[in-house]
Design a protein that fits this description.
Length: 655
């Protein structure tokens, strides 16, 4: 059906041509492309977001223009798994209607295997296997072969009405379908087993916006409603325990999302403008909870405070931005914003068969930011831009419930020479965190260990830190035919209150680019990007029982309680060159391009305790930490046979 749809739209130009009137303007092109693809290695990775098969495809582009209105059509990759089609028609200054279809393929792995049957459904059966030993001894060639891949199909239509200017209205509907198989895993029969999870999602969305736009005012009111449906709320799996009892895994639940938003802007004296943005959204879902389930052949029962979970998250956003240019040499921006995510979902208390009680934690947070930026035009073609921003985040989590960021920055731009532009920047961030020892875990016997180590841990996503960033960029144009660019960036974060965790992170990046027009026929270009990243961390190993000593001043207590460090260094070099040659003017153009990426990583481990197995602190290091090399070559020829016919041929190689 999808290929028939593509073919049908591609034939529409024939009917338009038949109905065209004298004086109407029509133009367009038809493309035919043949692809021969050969992959030695992981074919799915090579075509992760594409159609991996060889074949012939094409495209159509048509523009029809008349006094009454216009019709445009564009179709690419027709009849392939990556096709996209769009047709739009409208009346000038009054209305516009368009419809589209897009198909995207996401490939994870081809020819995967599983001993389960029923792949693609939500009921996986292990028969004839009844134990892990039978699976291990089985012939893999008898297993089910399938592809980990998801196809996403998007349909949409938009209507824009402008006939009542300065009032306007926009409406749109869309539908997205995702079908395929992705990987999941579960702890079944005392082993972790990879499972093919079926994907059968449908999302329907409706959007509407009405507003008014005429100087000095603009405002709009928008509404969005989205509904997500999953055809498989559970994945049932036969365990390999006694009796081959069926167990289940919960999959994404159906949910609804709605949003109302208001935007406004008014121009004021002194070249000023005030913009307002207010939005409120709600996400809701409902899930049936199973109090009885099977685990490795054993039936277990939890006592739940409620068998139905009602999920609800409200978000509220509002912001103000005031821009002004009171004098010719100064422009300013003052802003304030607030974001509040309120989790109003149910808190369900669960008591397991062993008597352990657990209540799900609800996470929400509030984020407030405000700041000022000023651009000052100085003599000698310089512009100085100082700025300040403050960010406060309150999180409902145990260890770091609140952080305050103070960010100071200064940018300087100089363009005093026609052939040179220089940019210099510095930014400082100071983050203060309010640490509290409030973390709790499910197993009470481990709470003592947690309480002992937590005072020394500051997780780097919210831990206190000081961060400095330096930037320098130079753009050279010594001649009309040569452009050069050079940039350098240094960023360093110091986590000043952390004892165990990430202590320091440093990034240095150098970038160089060049474009040269040798003559009317030949142009050359190239780039080089080099980055060095360093991450230093200190951690503490604890025994499974209550630790005897977690004091950081005592590096090692015994073989189960000691400090270890990791100094990680990643170096990435990325460079490329390209040449474009007009072999025959207005007829034949050739292009060649080469790109190379090389990543070289090293992790230096130090253990402050005896290492077993003959390892030492010199031999335990990881020499190949994220090491890889990628080479790419592209050759392309464009031949313009006539004004109506262009042929393009190419070859690409990647290793």
């Amino acid at each position: 059906m999808k290929k028939l749809l593509a073919t049908g739209i591609a034939l529409l130009p024939i009917f338009w041509i038949a109905g065209a009137q004298a004086g109407d303007d029509m133009s367009g092109q038809v493309k035919v492309t043949g692809k021969s693809i050969k992959v030695d290695g992981n074919k799915a990775k090579f075509s992760e977001y594409g159609d991996p098969d060889s074949g012939v495809t094409g495209g159509v582009e048509l523009k029809y223009d008349a006094e009454a209105g216009y019709v445009n059509l564009k179709a690419d990759e027709i009849a392939r798994d990556t096709q996209n089609l769009k047709i739009e028609a409208g009346q000038y200054g009054k209305s516009k209607l368009d419809a589209s279809y897009n198909q995207i393929q996401h490939n994870f792995n081809f020819d995967a295997k599983t001993f389960y049957t029923g792949v693609g459904t939500n009921n996986l059966t292990a028969a004839p296997y009844t134990s892990t030993a039978q699976v291990t001894a089985s012939n893999v060639s008898n297993w089910t072969t399938f592809d980990y891949a998801i196809s996403r199909d998007q349909y949409g239509a938009n209507l824009k009405l402008d006939m009542l200017k300065p009032f306007f209205a926009n409406f749109s509907v869309s539908k997205e379908e995702r079908k395929g198989i992705k990987a999941t895993a579960s702890y079944l029969t005392n082993v972790v087993i990879e499972l093919p999870e079926p994907v059968d999602y449908t999302t329907n969305t409706f959007q509407a916006e009405v507003g008014y736009g005429q100087d000095p005012f603009f405002f709009s009111l928008a509404y969005l409603k989205s509904n997500f449906e999953n055809a498989n709320p559970y994945l049932y799996v036969t365990s390999l325990a006694a009796g081959n009892i069926s167990e289940f895994i919960t999959l994404p639940p159906d949910n609804d999302y709605s949003k109302v938003a208001f935007k406004g802007r008014v121009k004021m004296p002194m070249s000023s403008a005030l913009a307002v943005n207010v939005a409120k959204s709600t996400a809701e879902s409902e899930v049936n909870l199973n109090s009885t389930y099977n685990n490795n052949g054993t039936t277990r029962t939890n006592t739940l405070s409620d068998n139905i979970f009602n999920g609800k998250v409200d978000t509220f956003l509002y912001g103000l931005v005031l821009t002004s240019s009171p004098l010719d040499f100064i422009d300013t921006k003052l802003f304030y914003s607030s974001y509040d995510k309120a989790n109003k979902s149910d808190s369900i208390n669960s008591i397991g068969s062993a008597g352990t009680s657990f209540t799900n934690h609800l996470f929400d947070y509030e984020k407030t930011s405000y700041g000022l930026e000023a651009g000052l035009k100085l003599p000698a073609q310089m512009k100085l831009t100082p700025y300040y921003k403050h960010i406060n985040v309150e999180r409902h989590r145990g260890d770091l419930p609140e952080t305050d960021d103070d960010i100071y920055g200064l940018d300087l731009k100089w363009s005093g020479l026609e052939w040179l532009t220089a940019k210099l920047g510095y930014e400082r961030m100071d983050r203060k965190s309010d640490w509290q020892q409030l973390l709790t875990i499910l197993t009470p016997s481990n709470q003592t260990s947690l309480n002992a180590i937590e005072p020394y841990i500051r997780r780097f996503d919210a831990g206190s830190q000081g961060r400095d960033t330096y930037k320098l960029a130079l753009d050279f144009s010594p001649t009309d035919k040569l452009n050069l660019g050079l940039a350098f960036k240094h960023k360093q974060s110091d986590y000043n209150e952390t004892v165990y965790g990430v202590l320091k992170q440093t990034n240095n990046n150098v970038n160089f680019s060049a474009d040269l027009t040798v003559n009317e026929r030949l142009s050359l270009s190239g780039y080089l990007d080099y980055e060095i990243e360093k991450i230093d961390q200190t951690q503490r190993r604890l025994s499974s029982v209550t630790p005897t000593n977690v004091n950081p001043d005592v590096l090692a207590v015994d073989s189960s309680n000691y400090t270890w460090t990791a100094d990680q260094k990643n170096k990435t070099l990325d460079y490329g060159v390209a040449a474009t040659l007009v072999w025959i003017p207005n007829t034949l153009t050739l292009r060649a391009q080469f790109d190379k990426v090389k990543s070289d990583g090293f992790a230096d481990y130090t253990y402050y305790a005896g290492l077993s197995g003959g390892f030492t602190n010199d031999t335990v290091d990881s020499e190949n930490w994220d090491d890889y090399t990628k080479d790419s070559i592209m050759l392309k020829a464009t031949y313009t046979a006539t004004k109506s016919l262009t042929l393009i041929g190419g070859y690409a190689y990647e290793h």
